[in-house]
Amino acid sequence: MGPETARGAATAPDSAATAALEARLDRTNALLERVLAEVAKTPSTHAIFVDAGYLYAAAGRLVAGTEDRRHFDLDAEGLIDALIDRARTIFADSRLLRVYWYDGARRRIHTAEQQSIAELPDVKVRLGNLNANNQQKGVDSLIRSDLESLARHRAISDAALIGGDEDLVSAVEAAQGYGARVHLWGIEAPEGRNQAEPLLWEVDSQRTFDLDFFKPYVTRRAVVPADGSGGPRPSREDVWFVGARIAATWLSSRGHEALADLLPGHPYLPGSVDQDLLVEAEGLLQYSLRGQSDLRRALRDGFWEHLRAQF
User: Fold this and answer.
1) Most-buried pick from 232, 275, 280, 303 (CB within 10 A)?
2) Nearest 5°: phi and psi at 220?
3) Interacting residues of 74 by C-beta distance below 8 A, sequence separation 6+
4) What confidence tier does 38 reach under pLDDT thresholds 50, 70, 90?
């Protein structure tokens, strides 16, 4: 065999291998183009994360002049709708995954208000604990867990975070580590600042909502004088009836399982239930029951009698 023949025999397999490689590259490029086309058609997704403790305190201070939830009402449904609308404007080419609402509750049992928020469409309520000093515990870790998990699984591309605690920095960093953008939404502070500087430094963008934004959703409750001078003293029967009325609302929101947990303690009520009962009754009666031991007993009697009749 001559040299030319040997070279020709060697070139033929090389050409075939090159052609096969080019064919594989063409198929790979075609596959990548299809994947990129699908990605381009997939909308971005955002979620809103609300630290309710921060929201109530900051919005209450801004609109009602107090951080005490007992002294103002928050139209959570209207406010959540407004936040969703604002997010739709800011993230114009994105779809909403859901709103995450983080709050504290004693023994992580929903209050009537938290239950009503949980029933709203596209809203997920997540509860931390509430200690004896009414301080939230475990909320920041819940926010971090959700932010990190959603970012890791590419479920969101953008997160709007309403909060101010420095402990949220780790949640922001965790989400950013998986490629999500975190946008901090704050509430105007009458004086100074109500968000930690390290948190402001870490986020991808910042936005502050002012008094006009929150005014439609926060209403200060009528002040009931501590001496009961806000009106004529109600009768024991009137107070008993209010207790029964509140019990009916409590039972419809909590259910019979909660009632079964409550009954063994009769005639005593857990401190958180007793406090909620007192505040709600004073609002309905427009009369202070502080220091009115006989009326307080009538209130509890009405509450208990209605509950025990349902069991």
Assistant:
1) 303
2) -75, 135
3) 56, 59, 60, 217, 218
4) low
Phi, psi of 181 (to 5 degrees): -95, 135
Q: Return d(Cα 172, Cα 134) in angstroms, integer.
A: 26
- Report pLDDT digits (tens) over 99-153: 999 998 888 888 888 888 999 999 999 998 876 666 777 888 999 999 999 999 9
Which neighbouring-strand residues pair with 219? 73
Phi and psi angles of residue 109, each rounded to the nearest 5 degrees, phi first: -100, 125
| Measured distance CA(260)–CA(253) in Å, rounded | 14
Residue identified by tokens 């209403």 is 219
What proportion of the chain, given as a percentage, has pLDDT over 70?
Answer: 86
Nearest to 134 by CA among 273, 272, 250: 272
Measured in residues, the chain has a length of: 311
CB atoms within 10 A of CB 184: 22
